Amino acid sequence: FFLHVLKLSFFCTLVVFSVSMTAEQKLKNCNEVRAAYSSKGFNVNDVPNKGVNGASLKVCPQGFSCCTVEMEEKLSQQSHTEIKAPVSRLSTNLQSTFRQRHDHFDKFFRELLKNAEVSLHSMFVRTYGMMYVQNAELFKKFFEALTRYYVSGGAAVNLDSMLSDFWADLLERMFRLVNVQYEFTDAYMECVSRHTEQLQPFGDVPRKLRIQLTRAFVAARTFVRGLTLMPEVVNKVSMVSASPSCVRASMKMLYCPYCSGQVALKPCQNYCLNVLRGCLANQADLDTEWNNFLDAMLSLAERLEGPFNFESVMDPIDVKISEAIMNMQENSMQVSQKVFQGCGQPKPSKAFRSKRSIKDTGFNGRFRPYSPDARPTTAAGTSLDRLTTDVKKKLKHAKKFWSTLPETVCAGERIAPGDECWNGTAKSRYESVVIGNGLANQVSNPDVDVDITKPDIVIRSQIAVLKEMTSWLKAAHSGNDISFETDEDGSGGEESGSGCDSPSCDTDMYFSTTRSPVKPRIDSVGSPSAGGGRLTRKRGAGALRAGPGPARSPLEIKVAGQEEEENDQNWWSEGENCQRDFKKTAFRTLDYPP
Fold first, then answer.
1. Please, are residues 331 and 517 in contact by the beta-carbon 8 Å criterion?
2. CA–CA separation, 157 and 151 (whole Å)
3. Is residue 429's pLDDT more than 50?
4. What is the average pLDDT across 224-232?
5. What is the residue-wise DSSP string for 377-423?
6. Half-sphere exposure of 300 (CA within 13 A, CB side)
7. Burial class of residue 69, CB neighbours in 10 A (0-12, 13-18, 19+)
8. What is the pLDDT of residues 436-457, one digit of tens each?
């Protein structure tokens, strides 16, 4: 028995001696390390020809080593670069994706505005001729104001006031036109302006148009602002520097195998995850607000496809304004009589030629049929549906971007599968438990020292930015505008809009306008003389003529919610909240050949 134990002991001693001799023999030659080190762009002379005493090393295991302190410092810098590279690449791709989507949406919305202006001008020139041309400035300013509102929001343009001024100015010009046999002083026209909301000369078009312009513009500009914000946040977060403890852990994971002569050895996956979760702990804390922001963007994208469709509002706006003009013409006698009763009988015009009838001063026009299902692609060569379908896929793909960065980086060729991997000290299984994401979880990180009491200031500020933008997106989802700073203008804090919070906003109703006069009333939603409703696409122009005319075909208008509720508002409420300052530019009396 004694001899047996002695033989076994001798055998074990030989095995240990043999292994030690093998490792020592491998480190006697550092040629592989020299080649790998040189391939990183470093001076090959930094690497010893054979293993040296590594007692002075600060990061890697001390002992017989192919590394020096100088090499360790250079490889630490290299590891910082290499650990940051895949994160930077992913961040850059994300920035590029949403910068492109922002440019696509912004170009599309701007071209829609321009196309709507060109379409109205072309149609009104054909339909109303010189009568429109001599008053084209009113419509030009209307579209300029819409563009400013799209760019800068309520800080630059009060949409309700702008629309009220537009309709009041249009009423003054048309009132003079349909009553060319009278002379009107500025004081008289001021009286007409004060009663615009009660008269409702343009029917219900201003109210419906105001609601839908507000909802569509707020949704569009807020969505575009969200697309602008995403690359900004990603860029600022990706620029956050790695902590010294992260650099140290990265060096140990990526290059300490060099010191033991194992240049091809990759880290264990779980080891890599713990290092990356420690290095990206602050970034992972961004994930909650980032996902909330993306959910709000997706919800607003649904609105853009549905009841707040910018394209569906802007494309037929020429038809809507022409319909309003038609309403005024058809009800001009009733409107004039109400004005004469309230403001007094005007004096006859000396310049009016008695042989000219009122009908001779107007134009006749007809609506032309237009398919509401047509989806034009003239703006930026695409349509809103196509843009939103594309961007929703990208938004969904971007969710959990920050919390999944460690898994994304610690994959493929960057790690070694199974147990044949570097665990931080040797080629063996990584035994530690993988810790969770976020700063709080790093208290138990075995590989990276993280001070959980000191969150990164830059990332905390971006969390606040995302939270604020999410509140704007949610407000826009309900049809409300919360002004925010833009590069083009300042900021404001006033909130306005349709206040559509109910599910009825998602329900589309249809109604037809008729040629029968509409009893004037006051609308309590926003500006008194304005309105909205999501509109279907029909094109054409109404007749501009004095007095009643031939019957016209009903024009379908698609509206989003709240119509029934708003129909219960007061009728003909005298003079309440209707004091405004309006321009006093009148239609010029035109001399047309008999």
1. yes
2. 10
3. yes
4. 96
5. --STTS-HHHHHHHHHHHHHHTTTTTTTHHHHHSSGGGSB-TTSSB-
6. 35
7. exposed
8. 999 999 999 999 999 999 999 9
